[in-house]
Automatic annotation (TrEMBL):
Pfam families: FeS_assembly_P. Residues 6-79 form the MIP18 family-like domain. The lineage of its organism: Bacteria, Bacillati, Bacillota, Bacilli, Bacillales. It comes from the Bacteria. Gene3D superfamilies: Fe-S cluster assembly (FSCA). This is MIP18 family protein yitW. InterPro entries: Fe-S_Maturation_MIP18, FSCA_dom_sf, MIP18-like.
Length: 103
């Protein structure tokens, strides 16, 4: 996958807002990896801020919808992982400022 497509995917994923926190999943540091095979199937490896998040299926649906406008992507698989565990250290400077967390 070329860098331009990866940036396009990350840009689309920035439209997916964690409903409990109000910040997008990219700036929260929830997206761990992006892969794509030759057939156009994108695999997004990500985590959630809390295990047992009641909105997990909503976030997965939003990820799939956000990527639906990218012509190179024919199918999306969202792989939720818990290892490594998410911490506030994964958040971008923007997210920390928005939430009032010292850098």
């Amino acid at each position: 996958m070329d860098e331009a497509l990866k940036e396009n995917i990350l840009g689309a994923l920035e439209q997916v807002i964690d409903p409990e926190i109000g910040i997008d999943i990219v700036n929260l540091g929830l997206v761990y990896g992006i892969d794509m095979d030759e057939e156009g199937k994108a695999t997004i490896t990500m985590t959630l801020t809390a295990m047992g998040c009641p909105l997990a299926s909503t976030i997965v649906d939003q990820v799939k919808y956000a990527l639906s406008d990218i012509p190179e992507i024919k199918d999306v698989d969202v792989n939720i992982v818990w290892n490594p565990p998410w911490t506030k250290d994964r958040m971008s400077r923007y997210a920390k400022i928005a939430l009032g967390i010292p850098d």
